[in-house]
C-alpha cells in the first residue's frame, strides 16, 4: 500500500511545481501514513526546510570543534581500489588526528555505518531523510563512504580502507521515541 501511495504522489500532476520544474519526491514510503497527522508546519529562512537541504558543517570530538573539510576529489574509485593502498591511505590519514585518532576513527565509522542510506549504481546516495544524507556526505569528505548495502551486510571505506560490516539490526526512526 505504501509503495502504491508513493507512486501516486510522484506521478500526480497537481503535485508538480512548474516554476521550479520539480515533481513530488517521496523519499520514505512510511511517512505517507503520517501525512494525516500533521498539525503544525514550520519553516525557516535558511532553506533547510523549504529546499529540504542539510549539510554537515561542524562536529565536536573530545570537546574540540572541527569544521568539515572542503570536498576533495572522489575518495576511492571502486574500480581502482586495492587493499594495500587502502590500508596505507588509512594509516597516513589517521596520523593527521594525533592523540584523538581513535575518537576520529570511531566517530567516522559510526557516520559511515549507522544509517539506512543506499548507494545507487550511478554512485549517488538515496536516503530516507536529508539529515542522514548530510551525515553520510559529510563523512565522505574524510574518505569514509558507503560502497554497498544489503539487508545482511554493508561495505564501506573508512579513511580509504575497505571494510565489510554485518548488519545486526535496523532501528527506523520512530516519532514516539524521536530517534532512530
TrEMBL record:
GO biological process, any: phospholipid translocation
Domain of life: Eukaryota
Organism: Spumella elongata
GO molecular function: ATPase-coupled intramembrane lipid transporter activity; nucleotide binding
This protein's UniProt keywords: Membrane, Transmembrane, Transmembrane helix
Name recorded for this polypeptide: Uncharacterized protein
Gene Ontology cellular-component terms listed: plasma membrane
Record lineage: Eukaryota, Sar, Stramenopiles, Ochrophyta, Chrysophyceae
Keyword Ligase: no
Transmembrane stretches, start-end: none
Amino acid at each position: 500500500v505504501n509503495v502504491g501511495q508513493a507512486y501516486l504522489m510522484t506521478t500526480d500532476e497537481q503535485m508538480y511545481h512548474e516554476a521550479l520544474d520539480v515533481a513530488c519526491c517521496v523519499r520514505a514510503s512510511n511517512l505517507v501514513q503520517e501525512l494525516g497527522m500533521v498539525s503544525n508546519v514550520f519553516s525557516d529562512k535558511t532553506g533547510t526546510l523549504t529546499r529540504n537541504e542539510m549539510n554537515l558543517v561542524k562536529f565536536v570530538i573530545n570537546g574540540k570543534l572541527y569544521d568539515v573539510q572542503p570536498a576533495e576529489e572522489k575518495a576511492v574509485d571502486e574500480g581502482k581500489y586495492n587493499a594495500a593502498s587502502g590500508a596505507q591511505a588509512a594509516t597516513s590519514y589517521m596520523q593527521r588526528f594525533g592523540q584523538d585518532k581513535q575518537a576520529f576513527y570511531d566517530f567516522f565509522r559510526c557516520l559511515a555505518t549507522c544509517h539506512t542510506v543506499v548507494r545507487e549504481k550511478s554512485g549517488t546516495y538515496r536516503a530516507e531523510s536529508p539529515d542522514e544524507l548530510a551525515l553520510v556526505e559529510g563523512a565522505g569528505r574524510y574518505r569514509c563512504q558507503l560502497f554497498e548495502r544489503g539487508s545482511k551486510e554493508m561495505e564501506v571505506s573508512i579513511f580509504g580502507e575497505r571494510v565489510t560490516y554485518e548488519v545486526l539490526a535496523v532501528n527506523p526512526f520512530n516519532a514516539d521515541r524521536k530517534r532512530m
